[in-house]
C-alpha cells in the first residue's frame, strides 16, 4: 500500500507577478509502506515546498496528495489539520522544541493534543526517548542538551503519534559530520520496522545512499538519482 502518493503536483509562487517562480511542475512521487527515500537537490530547487505539500502544510495549485490511501485534495483546513497531526511527523534542520518544557514533555504534548491519556503518553514518550539513547535526558530542557540530543528528541516528538509518514528537511544539517552520521543512523533505526514511510531531504549524498532510494528535483519534477 502507498503511504504517500503525489500525482502531478505543481506549485507557482507569486502567480502573475514579475517575481513569479514555478517551483513544482507535475511532480509525481510514491512512497510504499516502510520505504525510506532521500530527496536531494540544490538549495532553492523546491524541497521544502514539496515536503510542505506532502505534509498537508501547503496546497498544490494542481495535482493530488494522498496519505495512507486518502486523497486530501480539496479538503478543508480543519480536516487537513487533524490529518496532519495523526498521519504526519515533521523534523526540521533546527529542532524547534519548546524551550520551557522538558524532553519528555515535548514528546508528551503532541499526544495530549491528539487525545491520548497522560499516563499512556508519558509511557510512550519515555520509551521513544530510551530507544534513541536520550532516556537519561527526559527531565532536561532543550537548552541543557547537545545539538545531537536535541535532534533525537525532535525525532521522538515527530513519531509521538505513530504517524504513517515522516517528513524531514535537512534533519542533520545543523550538526558536525560525525554527530550528523550518528544521529542519521538513529533516525533510520527508529523508522525501520515500523512500517512508516520516510522522505528525507538532505545535501549529504553519503547519508542519502543509505536510504532505499534516492530521488532529486529536476525542473519541478521528481526523478530517480
Ligand atoms: P529548497 O527547500 O529546495 O531550498 P524551497 O521550496 O524553499 O526550496 O524554495 C523553492 C523556491 O521557491 C525558491 O526560489 C524560494 O525562494 C521560492 N519560495 C519558497 N517559498 C516561497 C513563498 N512562500 N513565496 C514565494 N517564493 C517562495
Ligand atoms: P529552508 O531552510 O527549508 O530552505 P527557507 O529559509 O528557504 O527554508 O524558507 C523558510 C520559509 O520561508 C518557508 O516556509 C518558505 O516557504 C518561505 N520562503 C522561502 N523563500 C521565500 C520567498 N522568496 N518569499 C517568501 N517566502 C519564502
TrEMBL record:
EC number: 3.6.3.-
Entry-linked Pfam families: ABC_tran (PF00005)
Residue span(s) of domain ABC transporter: 4-225
One cellular-component annotation, GO: plasma membrane
InterPro entries: AAA+_ATPase (IPR003593), ABC_transporter-like_ATP-bd (IPR003439), ABC_transporter-like_CS (IPR017871), ABC_transpr_LolD-like (IPR015854), MacB-like_ATP-bd (IPR017911), P-loop_NTPase (IPR027417)
Any GO BP: protein localization to outer membrane
Assigned keywords, A-Z: ATP-binding, Cell inner membrane, Cell membrane, Hydrolase, Lipoprotein, Membrane, Nucleotide-binding, Transport
Enzyme class name: hydrolase
MF-aspect GO terms: ATP binding; ATP hydrolysis activity; transmembrane transporter activity
Keyword Lipoprotein: yes
Gene3D superfamilies per the UniProt record, alphabetical: P-loop containing nucleotide triphosphate hydrolases
Family per similarity comment: Belongs to the ABC transporter superfamily. Macrolide exporter (TC 3.A.1.122) family.
PANTHER family registered for this protein in UniProt: IMPORT ATP-BINDING PROTEIN, LIPOPROTEIN-RELEASING SYSTEM ATP-BINDING PROTEIN LOLD
Name recorded for this polypeptide: Lipoprotein-releasing system ATP-binding protein LolD
Organism expressing this protein natively: Roseovarius halotolerans
The encoding gene: lolD
